[in-house]
Amino acid sequence: MADIKRGLIRRVVVYKLDRISRSILDFATMMELFQQYNVEFVSSTEKFDTSTPMGRAMLNSCIVFAQLERETIQKRVTDAYYSRCQRGFHMSGAAPYGFKLEPTTIQGIRTKMMIPDPDTANIARLMFEMYAEPSTSF
Q1: DSSP states of 36-70
Q2: Domain of residue 124, residue span
Q3: Which among 86, 95, 85 is positioned nearest to 119, based on CA atoms?
Q4: Please, which residues bridge with residue 104 across strands?
Q5: Neighbours of 44 (CB within 10 A)
Q6: pLDDT tens-place string over residues 60-94
Q7: Minimal CA–CA distance to 112: which of 128, 99, 125, 126?
């Protein structure tokens, strides 16, 4: 964007419209900047003539569907994440103190499960018990 404002770029070429943006607001801002600095916008797989009102309308319609696709993908990924968590899959990160990760297979899928670590579980339990005591000094 800085190069566009400096006048170094005259044409922006993308493979596909949704590769540059999947947000209506971001895309509209970008297109305003392109128009302000006389920068052509070209999608190599889609034909848009941004010099006509109909071409700009078609471009905006396509970006609406790109944003819908992005939001749908986000929702599916989030749903899958929570579904896997509910089935006992360990999703990421190190095990908290007092636990360790053990490789396992759940419903035919290799994953890891948190199990109590015999070396540290008692210490973690003691820490929580002490925290729950109002008379404990921190």
Answers
A1: HTT-EEEESSS---TTSHHHHHHHHHHHHHHHHHH
A2: 90-138
A3: 95
A4: 111
A5: 10
A6: 888 888 888 888 999 999 998 888 888 777 777 88
A7: 99
Smallest Cα–Cα separation from 120: which of 131, 112, 128, 110?
128
In the chain, the largest separation of any two C-alpha atoms, in whole Å, equals: 75
Please identify which residue in the block is written with the tokens 């005259």.
10
Q: Are 62 and 20 in contact (CB under 8 A)?
A: no
Cα 45 off chain centre by: 25
Q: Are residues 104 and 64 in the same domain?
A: no
* Claim to verify: residue 16 and residue 55 sit in the same structural domain: yes
Residues 112 and 77 in one domain: no
Co-location of 78 and 17 in the same domain: yes
Query: Is residue 3 a contact partner of residue 34, using CB atoms and an 8 Å limit?
Result: no
Helix, strand, coil proportions of the chain in percent (round to 5)? 50, 15, 35
Query: Binning pLDDT at 50, 70 and 90, where does residue 58 land?
Result: confident
